[in-house]
Structures are given as C-alpha cells and as structure tokens.
Amino acid sequence: MASTTRPSGARLSTPGGPATEVESACPLDCPDSCSLSVTVRSGRLVSIDGARSNPTTNGYICAKVRRFGDRVYGPDRLRYPAIRRGRKGEGRFARVSWDEALETIVSRMQQVITESGAEAILPFSYGGSNGMLTQDAIDLLLWRRLGVSRLARTLCAAPTGAANMALYGKMASVTYQDYVHAKLIVLWGVNPSVSGLHLVPYIREAQKRGAALVVIDPRTTALARSADIHLAVRPGTDVAVALALHRYLFEQGLAAFAFLEQHATGADRLRERAYDWTIDRAAMTAGIDPQALGQAADLYARSQPALIRCGWGLERNRNGGNAVLAVLALPAVGGKFGVRGGGYSMSNSASWSIDRPWVDSPEPSTRVVNMNRLGRALTELDSPPVRVLFSYNCNPVASVPDQERIIKGLEREDLFTVVFEQVMTDTALYADVVLPATTFLEGYDFAKAYGPISLQMVRPVIDSVGEARPNADVFGELAQRLGVLTERDATGELDLIVRILADLPTAIGERLQSGERPEPPCGLAPVQFVDVFPNTPDRRVQLFPPELEAVAPEGLYRYQADPATARFPLALISPASDRTISSTLGELPRPDVKLTMHPDDAAQRGLDDRDTVRVFNELSEVQCPLAVSPSVPRGTVSLPKGVWRRSIKNGKTGTALVPDTLTDIGGGACFNDARVQVASLPVA
Ligand SMILES: Nc1nc2c(c(=O)[nH]1)N[C@H]1C(S)=C(S)[C@@H](COP(=O)(O)OP(=O)(O)OC[C@H]3O[C@@H](n4cnc5c(=O)[nH]c(N)nc54)[C@H](O)[C@@H]3O)O[C@H]1N2
Ligand SMILES: Nc1nc2c(c(=O)[nH]1)N[C@H]1C(S)=C(S)[C@@H](COP(=O)(O)OP(=O)(O)OC[C@H]3O[C@@H](n4cnc5c(=O)[nH]c(N)nc54)[C@H](O)[C@@H]3O)O[C@H]1N2
Ligand SMILES: [Mo]
Q1: For residue 218, which atom of ligand 1 is closest to its CA?
Q2: 561: buried, middle or exposed (CB in 10 Å: 19+, 13-18, 0-12)?
Q3: pTM of the full predicted structure?
Q4: Does the C-beta of 583 come closer than 6 Å to ligand 1?
Q5: Which of 24, 188, 511, 579 is 20 to 30 Å from 216 by CA-CA measure?
Q6: 641 lines ligand 1 (CB under 6 A)
C-alpha cells in the first residue's frame, strides 16, 4: 500500500527569507472559529491575528490564541516520541524513534487483544482541536475494526445535544449577525465575553438599537452588569425558572396556541408539568427575587423578536437535560419563531449535515464506557478490565470529573497508557508512551464554527515542531501496522483531506479548496420556521419527546433537589475562563487561580481576600487564595475551568471536587453540581 503520510517533522520552507502573512482558521473548541492571519518567517510562527476577510470574527482574536506561539515553541511542547523511565506521574521519559514507539504500542495492543479481547482497550478522546481530520476519522476506523470498548463522548454538550435533537432535530439556529434584529436577548447560562467573544459586539449593537437584555447566570458576568434584568439563579435550578416562564405564557393566555397546534406535539403535557411552577415557587427554588422573575416572564411574553442564547453552563448538573429542554421549548410556546432575530441559538455544528462517508466501517456492539466515569472505568471495570488506555485530543486529568479517582487509575502498574498530545499535560505525565502531535498551525483540518455558521480550511502554515505528526498520519500508520486497513482506506492526512474534499458536496469542497468560506444548504443566517424547520420525523417540535421520557430518571420537566448538605452547603461552579480553552494553554504561567466567594459567606467563615483557603468535600481538597466578591451569589463559589495541577498549591484542581454523577438526560458531566465547604488554611 502506498503511504501518503507526510514525513514526521514536515518542513514547509528553508531558512531565511522575508516574513509572510498566510490565512488559516482556528479550530479550537470555541463557538467562533476565527479566521486567522498568521505571520510566518522561515517556517516559524511570528504572530497570529484575526483575518479581516471574515465579517463575523472581524479581524480580531482572543488573547489566548494570540499567545499560541508560547505553546507551540514552549518548554512543555512534546517534540519526540518517548517512553516512560520513571514512576507513573513522575514525568521521566526517554526519547525513542517513531518506529520504536509505534511498535511498542502495537505489540502491547496485540498481546492484550489475545489475552483479554479488544474490549480491554479504551480509546479516550474529546474536543482537542475539534476538527474533521483530527477526530472520528482514521482513528475511528481503527477502533471500530479492532472492536475496542466504545466511548460515550459526554464530557460536554451531551444534555444540550440530546434536548436540541429531541425537540428540533438540531435545526440550525440564529447566528451572530442576526442578534442585532432582536428586541429582547436572553443569555441563559452562557458567558460570551469569555467563551465566544465575537457575539458581544452584536449584543451591544442590539442594545444600542433598543433591545432589552436578560441574563440568567449565578455570576454577575460583564454582560449581566449591563442587563435590564439579571437573575442570579442557584446552579441547577434553571428547569424551575424556565417552567415558571412556560406557566406564565400558558396561564396568562400569552402562549402561541395556533403555532403549537400547527407545529408542535406534546404542548399539553408540558403545560401540565409547568403548572406547579408558579413564579413565586420557582423564584424561591432558584433563590431569586420573584418580582424580577415576573418581569422577565412578562418581557419575554411580550417582546418580538425575542431571542434566547442557550449556553452550556446550565447543562452541567443533575437537572441539566430537563433545564435545556425547558429553555429551548420556550420559543415554541412563546411563538418567537418566524422572524429574523427571534427563536433560539444553540450549537450550530449540525447545520452542515455532513456525514462521514470516509468512516465506512459499521459500529461494533462492544461495551460503552461513559467518559465522565473514567476513574471508575480504570479502577472498577471488570471482564475485561481496561488494560490499554489510548488518550488523544483530551486531557482527562484536568478536564474530566473525579480527578483523584482518575489518577488512582492511571497509577495502576498493569495499565498501559498511551498519550498522544501536543504538550506534556497532567495526563501525559502518567503515560507509558507519549506521542507528539502537531498543532493546528502545523497540519490540515477543517474548522467548523458552532456559533456562527461557517466552515473553513485549516492549513499547515509553519514547520512541524520536532517530530510532531498529525493524528491522521499516526492512526493511519497504527492501523496499517495492526493490519486493519484495506486498499480503499485513507492512510494519512493528505490522503484523507483529498477524500473528504471529494466527498463533500461540490460547491462546498471547491470553495474550501480555494480558501473561501462556503455556504451550507440552510444559508449563513437562516430564520427558524422560515428557512429551516425541525429535522424531527414529523417536522414538528416535539415538546414531550418520548425518547427522552424513556431515559430521564424522574421523567421530563422534573426538578431534582439540591445535593447540598449541612457539611457541604456551597455550590461550586467552574465556568470557562479567558486564560484557557478547556485546559488547552493551561500550561502557560498564569496569575493565581482563586476561589471566588460572596462577602457574606466569607464573613460567616471569618475569611477575607488575604486568605488562602481549603475548598473541600468528600472527594478531595483544593488549596488556593480567596477572592471575595459579590459577583457570585451567596451559597455559590467559583473556580475556573481547565486549570492545570501546577497552578494549584496542593496539586488538585476543581475537577477533583466534581462528582462523577451524570445529568438527567444525555449522561453528561455534572461539573457544576459539586457541593463543598470552605475554610481557612492554617499557616503551616
Ligand atoms: N475562553 C474560553 N472560551 C471557551 C472555552 C474555554 O474554556 N475558554 N470553552 C469552550 C467550550 S468547550 C464550551 S462548551 C463553551 C462553554 O461556554 P459557556 O456556555 O459560556 O459555558 P460555561 O463557561 O461553562 O458557563 C457559562 C455561564 O453559566 C453559568 N452557570 C453555571 N452554572 C449555571 C446554572 O446552573 N445555571 C445557569 N443559568 N448558569 C450557570 C456560569 O456562571 C457561566 O458564566 O465555551 C467555549 N469557549
Ligand atoms: N471543572 C470543569 N471542567 C470542565 C468543564 C467545566 O465546565 N468545568 N467543561 C468541560 C468542557 S465544556 C469540555 S469541552 C471539556 C474539554 O476537555 P478536553 O477535550 O480534554 O479539552 P482540553 O482539556 O483542552 O484537552 C484537549 C487536549 O487535546 C490536545 N490536542 C489538540 N489538538 C490535538 C490534535 O490534533 N491531536 C492530538 N493528539 N491532541 C490534540 C490539546 O493539546 C489538549 O491537551 O472539558 C470539560 N471540563
Ligand atoms: Mo465544551
């Protein structure tokens, strides 16, 4: 079979020569997918900025990616394959050749398959660079053909995805440029100033044109400060709040009865479930002012166009699936569709309806491991136990719940761990074999935005660092060595990209190749119920989806009580920060990571800003400085998401306090369901 992989450490250029500007796109896990202008000299990155050609990302990018060079060339970058020489976790490795590294992996996998069956192999991956080439491509072919354990990719967006799918079949949703047409914008569990910053100017412009802004978020975020109404709900109570809005619409006669009749099923059952949630009861449950909630309900009922931006903050708790279901059902009940600037925004990643004909192997019926329970999978699974863990596009020690249990699993001497990574992450430290991966500046990919609707080609713009190689090349070579590739399969990155371009609808493939941004069939700014309709079997909104009713333990639109106890009364949340994208870039030096706490909670514990505190529960303890601020409500404390262990005094991060319980729908992670106590850390 002819190999089409690029040699490791691919070089694009020879030394010398002037600096040039080249265009690419950022595929990191963020809704925006910025178009980039990258300045390069002699195959090395000089600087990264936004490209003006993209009207939505508009010539500017976040401060994080601007510093991406510090990661590409930084001291933590993995440059060569390496094999562990020290204790697990110690970080002592010896450089080896690609051949030796891959042969070591192949022979161990073969041995484990013979002795325990392929299900003893657990591939573990999540967002990474979120591209079409770097995940679910040749890697998926390899795993399917070997018949390894399957991974439920539930770390993020599982509840929102399940709710959006069941209600609307993931219909395309309102894109950034249409926010200016809204007369009311509701930001629900989302903080675009940090997590998708190109939305902010559109919200500001809408406000200038007279739109009202409602923010539903425990924290007083930058946008909450300028909101007309800010509902600082207790984490996990959104389902109650949304049901109170439904009740208001129905019982005040403000629901869109004619629309529901024509375009929806299940409205009566939803109405019945909402009936118990009066404004007062919901406000009490959420710990907010009933008058403010009543005003928000009335504003939503009477505004047109009214737009809900549903984020991911509200999904990360025991009620997350039902909360998102209730929130996304609002525009149907309120009659908010059919006008530009009205309806809802959720992930737009499905707008391209690109299936993956290049992954043509059927999914085997092997066991499924929920990734949010990695710690248990490594320490409790039996028949067979996990004997090989292959982690890529993911940093589970930093990003997956129940950190201590994961580390306990990774410390198992009989576990063979491969980590395929760009930098020496908290997870890579536990690897038996480390493989160096290229970054999005060193390889090809497709960047698909999930806020705006855009698809762009990502190209190698700098020389690969050291011997780093792209995912497709490495999985292609592994699959070849394991004897599971056929003549028809792509064997590496270049081969794969050619096939993907050929498999895409011609108009899309051709425009991508010429560096332009194509348009999907739904257009770049579809109006819901004008240009796009639910992709459900009967093309109607399923307000009481039977497939979800079958899985939700308490049924649909149900509120499960707060898990707080007298010992652990504080709700700990860990939202996105402007320092990292998930844990990516978390290796770079950062100012102190602090726990934010309300002044009353601090006073009650005799704590102030000068204190270093212990944040603890039955799972673990995090020791860090305290920031006292009314930006969180009483009873809620906050740590940033994506922190590396090195940034915390005692080497345990927020995820160590997160239980591995699952959301009501979708099997999602409950990052915001940790309950903790906080006390001052006695000076040693
Ligand atoms: N800078 C940066 N950008 C990112 C990321 C990043 O890590 N850093 N991550 C990317 C990824 S993977 C994702 S999924 C998105 C996520 O982006 P967002 O949807 O913005 O998600 P979060 O930051 O998790 O939470 C958003 C807000 O929800 C609030 N919140 C927490 N719990 C609750 C609750 O129970 N109810 C309500 N109503 N609000 C709650 C938090 O205080 C926070 O302000 O951002 C993407 N963009
Ligand atoms: N406490 C807390 N934790 C959270 C959350 C939270 O709200 N609170 N939110 C979660 C969310 S929203 C998400 S999406 C997850 C994300 O969790 P992960 O998907 O694990 O994201 P990262 O932690 O950034 O790790 C991605 C890793 O992939 C590597 N990578 C990138 N591109 C490539 C590539 O092409 N090849 C290979 N081999 N590797 C690559 C990067 O170097 C990086 O280390 O984290 C979750 N973790
Ligand atoms: Mo995410």
Answers
A1: 42
A2: exposed
A3: 0.97
A4: no
A5: 579
A6: yes
